[in-house]
User: Fold this.
Amino acid sequence: MELTRDMRDMLDGKYGEGASLALKVQVGIGECFDAPRMVPITNAHVALSNQEADLWFAEKMVKLGARTKIPPTVNPGFCLAYFEEKNMVTEEEADHMRRTHEAYKTLGCRLTYNCTPYMDTNIPFPNEIIAFSESSATPYVNSVWGARTNRESAQSALCAAITGVAPEYGLLLDENRKGNILVEVKSRMEGDFSFNLLGYMGKKIGPGIPVFTGLGDYVSPEAHRNLGAELNTSGAYGMYHIVGVTPEAPTLEAAFGGKKPQRTVVITDEDFERVLEKEISDPGGRKIDFALFGCPHTSTKELLHIADRLYGKKLAVPLWIMTSSLTKSNAGKMGLLDVIRAAGGDVVEDTCSDQPCWHLYKGKVGVTESPKCAYYPRKRGLEFVIRDMDTCIDAALKGEVE
Ligand code: F3S
Assistant:
């Protein structure tokens, strides 16, 4: 790989051992993909996970004196003050989160603790070269905002934030951003929830860049969020196109760059039913213990909807809604938190579903509107029935799901 004198100096340790190691990691990745050079980035998002390997790498970088040149936004762990006060985490778990916080703070990250930065705190421009990790964030910034990032890992995105560059390959280049799979959507699309199910068709769609047709001419921000999150729960996708909706797909021809699709996949109602009933959801028609929303983080529009549905009512089981501190703060000003709390629910900031703070629900059954929310916590022993948001709200009010 061709490196500038400055890059070579960085590798040789002129800017410290941390920057040198970060660049070494990136050169290794770049060489695997035949990247000819490094290019500057202007934005980054790190999918911090507050798990062992994540903390190991962040603390290693701290010990080596690294500091981010492009301060990235970061994913959620869990809200320490909230869960400590409620006695829902052990001392060891709290200490882990504290160390994660300290490490990322020392590295100079923007401690947003939010997995939907593309909705408010970190919105890139079209064609901007960036380094984003996080399953819903990468496809969103590529597909919806027209920015350019590869599907970075938490560690490679952190390295890019430290060095300020990324290897030039893959989705950074025009020729690799064209679609190659035509996905004809013939299933009924009923609101944002249907995009969760469409995203979960990753196994049927197969590897590549899908080009969706049949989705009309408006797709909401929440629907894009759901589609990207689930595409990367059921498969691995850095980008998609929706003809007539996303900026690099004004027409079918433009989406494929004038080439023919390698294959065509048709999505039907039967696909949705099969995936929901047989693959991702526990069976319904049962009592539930809790409801969990916000994986990826809930938007202001959704909080408004939930508060409207809960106004003046009482929940039969606890309802937890995860969101960013910014959205929570706005919801407070809008009076939505009062309504949700009066019903017996709560809004939790900075928190992810895949965290130890939820272990009180081990062996219990919850409802959620998100297949991703069901997927990760399952390994911690939580079970979920997946339904659209209104059915989940009704279930939380009744204590049972249809
Ligand atoms: Fe966000 Fe964690 Fe879900 S990062 S998308 S809440 S698994």
The two ends are 58 Å apart (CA to CA). The first strand starts at residue 38 and ends at 40. The chain has a mean pLDDT of 97. Residues 178-278 form one domain.
